[in-house]
Amino acid sequence: MTKLSFYGGIGEIGGNKILLEESETKVFLDFGKSFNLERNFFDFPLLKPFYIPDLLNIGAIPSLRGLYRNSSEKPPVDAVLITHPHLDHYGYLSFLNKGVNIFLGKGTKEIIDIRSRTYRNYWDTKLDHLSFETFSTGDEKETGNLSFKPIHVDHSIPAAYGFIIQAGNKTISYTGDFRFHGRMGKLTEDFLAALEKEDIDVLLCEGTNISPGEEDEFLREFEERLQNRGGVKVPERFPVHCRSEADVKEQMQRVAEELEGLVVVETSAADVDRIRTVSEVARKTGRKLVLDPKQAYLTYELEKSGLVSGLPNRGNSSVLMERRKLGKRLKSPTDSEDKETGKKGRDQWQQEFFEMSGEVYWGPEGREEIRKNAEGFLLCTSNATARFMELRYEKPFRCSYILSKSEPFNEEMAISFDKLLHWLGLLGIDKYYQIHVSGHADREEIKKLVEKANPNTLFPVHTNYPQLFKEIFSKSRIVEPTKGKPYEL
Fold this sequence. Notes:
CATH superfamily of the largest domain: Ribonuclease Z/Hydroxyacylglutathione hydrolase-like
Strand order of the largest sheet: 12-19-18-13-17-14-15-16
CATH class of the largest domain: Alpha Beta
Number of domains: 2
Radius of gyration: 23 Å
Shape: globular
C-alpha cells in the first residue's frame, strides 16, 4: 500500500516535509524549516527554540517516535530526499536520528557545506552525525521498496531537482521549487520532457505564486498605513515589471546608469543568479562591486568549486566587512569609541577574506573610502538596513537603493521593512526601484507543467492558497492535504 502524509508545506510557503510510504519503506520528501510557524511562537534572538521538544510542541516537526537524534531507537523512516539547498527544504535535517540516510544532489551538498561554515555552531545546525548519499541528474536511485530519478530544474539557487518516484505500481512526481524564466530555464524543460514520458499518477506541485490578487497588495496597504502614521514621509516605490532574469539585468542596468552616489542593491542571501546579475550590472556601469560577507563567501566558494561559472570572485569584487568591536574594553584611554578589529576575533570563514588577494573594506576608514568615492561603487547586500546604519556614520552621503527580492508579504516582514524605509528617509532617498523576478514558477508556468504532466491526482504544496488550484486545473483531481492525515494512493 502506498501512502502520503504531509507534515509541512501545507497552507504555507516552505517547510516541506512529506512522508511517502511503500510497504515497509518510508522516506521524507524534504525536511524543511517552517519559518512561518516558528514566527508565530518565537522571536529571535530573545525567544527562540531551545531544543527539539520546543519544535515538537508547536507542530513544526512531526511527532514520530525514534525519528530524532535524542532517541536511541531505530528511526521510523529510511531516508530523506532533498530537492535543493534552501533552508525551508532542508533546515530541520540536523534534528534527525543518525540512522536516517540523506539523498541529495552533489551540488546541493556542496552549497549546504559552504553555507554551514558561515553559521554559528548551535544545537540546531549540526549535520556531522548524518550519512549523505549524493546524486546527479538522471541517476537511478533505490531505497528499500522505492526507486527514484532526480532531474534538475531551474530555481533561484543552483543544484535544484524534481523527482520522479516509483512506489509499487504508482508513479509519483515531486516538483520541489522550479521556474522556467531563470537563466537556466532549459533545466526545467528537461524535467518537463521527462514527465511527459511517464504516466504520472500523483503530482506534488509547488504553488508559491498562486495567489488571488496582485503580489504587492500587502505592500501598498502597508505603505498607506505608514504614510498616515504621524505624517511619515514614505519614499516612493517604482516597481519595474520583469518577466525573466534577463529582464532584471536589462532593467537594473538601465536604472543604475541613471542613479547617483553609491548604488545599493538588496538581494536574498543565497540568490546566486541575482548576485551574478548584479555583478554584471556593476561591470557594465563601470562601478566596483562590493559584496557583504556571506554573499561573497558563497559565491567565491561556488566559483572555486566549479559548480557555477560567471560568479563574482576576488579578482573582480571586494568585500565590505560588518562592524566588529575591538573588545569589551578599549586598549587605552586614547582609543576611539568606534575603534574596530579587522581579522582578529572573527569566525574562520571571515578571516579567510583577509588572507585572499583583493580588497576588503572594514572599520571606519574602509567605510569612509566607500562614502568618499560613492559614485564608483555598487554594493550588493542581503541586509541593506544594516549596511545603511554602518555607512552613514553621523553624516549623510549620496546613495540610491534598488530592492531586488520579494517585497514583504506578512506583518513580521513589514516591521523590518518599516525600518528600511526610515533609513532611506534619513539618507535623503525619496524614491527607490523594485526590480525583481521570482525564483518560483508563475501561474502560467505552473499550468504548463501540470498540463504536460497530466496527473490523475494533484496535491498542492508550498503555497498559501491550495484551494485556488481547483479553479485553475480541471482535468486532475485536486486534493488539499490536511496536516498529518495519511492519503492512500
